Each structure stands twice: as C-alpha cells, then as structure tokens.
C-alpha cells in the first residue's frame, strides 16, 4: 500500500505491522515465541489457536536479516507446529504474500499446501 499511497493517516507500514503484533500478543500472549543467539533476540513467531475449529494460526514470522538462511525460521515454525500438536489441534495455517518465494518454499517443505490466493484492494477515500 505504501508504494501506491505513501504514508496512510500519517503512519507507515512498520507502524501498522507493530499494531498487528500488539494484537497478536493481546489475543494470545502465550503464543509468541522468540529465537535467541547468545542472549540476543534474533527472531520471533506469533501464533494463536482456534481450538473449536482445531486450527493453529501463524500470522507473523520474522528473523534479523543477518540470521536468515540458517534454518532458524524453519525451527521457529517447527516449534509452533509442535505447540499446536501439544494443544490438541489438527491443522495449522500460515499466510504469505505472493512475492515471498522463499517463504512459499519453506512452508511447502514443512507440509503446508496452498489452498487459496487472495487479492487485496485499497481505495482512497
């Protein structure tokens, strides 16, 4: 959106992303997991559970740029998947943007399969 419209309501995409993370933490604080190396937080994954539907959701996964390509994202996802299993869930869901080719390969290698593509529209008011 920022490429098309610039700042929206005086906020950039990082501000909006931070709000989403705050919402994740408020929804399910026990579903946020971090990765550390020598006491330095280098990444995190946020999760939440729809226990009635049996589905665990992974809305956010992030690693510091210098820590990518080392299998740490895979480890975070594997940890989240085990957490879901331990909670009795039967399925996990993760979403990504079409341009995230690396993520798409990672997710399919972990057993995820594509079920739908979604198109987002935004209009100036």
Q: Share of helix among residues?
A: 25-40%
Note the gap between the termini. Answer: 14 Å
Strand order of the largest sheet: 1-2-3-4
Oligomeric grouping of the chains: single chain
**Succession of helices and strands:** HHEEEHEH
Mean pLDDT: 94
CATH class of one domain: Alpha Beta
Low-confidence stretches: none
Secondary-structure-based class equals alpha+beta
Strand content: 15-25%
The CATH homologous superfamily of one domain is named Gcn5-related N-acetyltransferase (GNAT)
- What is the CATH T-level topology of one domain? Aminopeptidase
Folded structure, characterized:
The structure is a single chain. With 125 residues, this protein is of the alpha+beta class. The two termini are 14 Å apart. The longest helix has 15 residues. The chain is globular, with a radius of gyration of 16 Å. The mean pLDDT is 94. It has a domain of 85 residues: Gcn5-related N-acetyltransferase (GNAT) (Aminopeptidase, 3-Layer(aba) Sandwich), CATH 3.40.630.30. A four-stranded mixed β-sheet has the order 1-2-3-4, sandwiched between helices.
List the helices and strands and how they pair.
Layout: H1 2-5, H2 13-27, E1 32-37, E2 40-50, E3 55-63, H3 72-86, E4 91-94, H4 101-109
Parallel strand pairs: 3-4
Antiparallel strand pairs: 1-2, 2-3
Question: Which short descriptors sum up this protein?
Answer:
125 residues, alpha+beta, Aminopeptidase, four-stranded mixed beta sheet, 4 strands, globular
Q: TL;DR?
A:
The chain has four helices and four strands; from the N terminus they run ααβββαβα.
């Amino acid at each position: 959106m920022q490429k098309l419209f610039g700042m929206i309501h005086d906020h950039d995409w990082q501000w909006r992303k931070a709000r989403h993370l705050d919402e994740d933490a408020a929804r399910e604080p026990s579903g946020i997991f971090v990765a550390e190396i020598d006491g330095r937080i280098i990444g995190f994954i946020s999760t939440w559970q729809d226990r009635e539907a049996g589905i665990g959701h992974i809305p956010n996964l992030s690693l510091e740029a210098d820590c990518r390509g080392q299998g740490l994202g895979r480890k975070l996802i594997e940890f989240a998947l085990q957490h879901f299993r331990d909670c009795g869930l039967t399925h996990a869901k993760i979403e990504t943007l079409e341009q995230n080719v690396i993520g798409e390969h990672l997710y399919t290698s972990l057993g995820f399969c594509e079920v739908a593509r979604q198109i987002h529209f935004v209009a100036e008011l």
